[in-house]
Amino acid sequence: MKQFIKKLYYGDIPDAGSGTTPSNDQQPRTDWPLWEVFIRSKQGLDHKHVGSLHASDAQMAIENARDVYTRRQEGVSIWVVESKHLTASNPAEAGELFEPAADKVYRHPTFYNLPDQVNYM
Amino acid sequence: MQQALLDYTLSLSDNALILGQRNAAWCGHGPILEQDIAITNITLDLIGQSRILYQYAAQLKGGDATEDSLAFLRSEREYKNCLLVERPNGDWAQTILRQFLFSCFQRELYTQLTQGKDSTLAAIATKSLKEVSYHCRWSREWVLRLGDGTAESHTRLVKALENLWPYTGELFKGADYELALGLDPAMLYTNWLSAVQSTLEEATVSLASLTSCFMQTGGKTGIHTEELGFILTDLQYMQRTYPSCDW
């Protein structure tokens, strides 16, 4: 059987006609799954999404996140969740999801007079 | 006594520097981006440790010695690092296992030093111990993954173990300067072995065939393998080519 070398470049999507992928009888690429990383920067603040990374399991994802996202003292706590467990809203539905709120200004608490004593609202 | 302390401090910093230099070669070549960053992080920890140790050594040595002159202007025979850290990177398994064997040793060593008589070394050890604990944890995870992973990764780990094991005996064989300071590394052996053994067992790798293997020695007293010359050639190139260049 003819052997092909498959070379992927940054930005290529495997099996989408990119790189040189002449044959389809190769073993499927067993890439590590993608994980989303959430970092709490300070005690008392909430975890914020900071990015994603590849890891073979949750334990490795935490360690990778430590090395990739907290090298400059960004955090005191890490959450990871496998990206496939996230459900995202569909950008095509953004209109019906979000636009109805646009003309309902009365939902904003802007019609109250704040006493001067209340700082930082 | 002062000489022994100087030699001892140099041996600690040489270990950290040479392993750091070795690991640094992975920068940009890690098997996956995240691991590339992880190994480079460890490199930076090690080079950081070597810097503070060299600064202390320069102070002990006096004269015009600096951390840079100690790192860049000593020759092979003056380097006191153990042979283990100068072993080639080989494949990922060998790099990981070298890190694991050495970090477990360093953890025991630094723990001992935190209680030592020399307050500067104790302070450096206390500071470095957290880093080293992480190196142990990180490399242990990888030893488990490789040993208990695929047939290929298992084979590679076993091969790495056969390659590296003969260089572990030296770690626990006290050099003159260690014994003069009352810091016999033989005391660290039991803890080290049980940590290493339990991890290897969990990784389904057996030490049985290696228990009586011949142990290489010499690094601590400046008798190195052929590898160190090449490492220093790279490491010292700039200072040797452009003496006292600065940036």
Fold and architecture overview:
The complex is a heterodimer of chains A (121) and B (247). Helix content of chain A is 14%, strand content 17%. By secondary structure, chain A is of the alpha+beta class. Chain A has a domain at 31-86: Phenylacetic acid degradation B (Ubiquitin-like (UB roll), Roll). A 3-stranded antiparallel beta sheet of chain A has the order 2-1-3, covered by helices on one side. In chain A, β1 (34-40) and β2 (48-54) form a beta hairpin. The longest helix of chain A is centred in the middle third of the chain and has 12 residues, at 58-69. Chain A starts with 33 loop residues before the first strand and ends in a 23-residue tail after the last helix. The model of chain A is unreliable at 17-26 (pLDDT under 50). With 247 residues, chain B is mostly helical. The longest helix of chain B is centred in the N-terminal third of the chain and has 29 residues, at 33-61. Chain B has a single domain (2-241), classed as Ferritin, core subunit, four-helix bundle (Ferritin). In chain B, 66% of the residues lie in helices and 0% in strands. The chains are: A alpha+beta (121), B mainly alpha (247). Chain A binds chain B through residues 32, 53-56, 59-60, 63-64, 67-68, 71, and chain B through 32-35, 37-38, 41, 137-138, 141, 145.
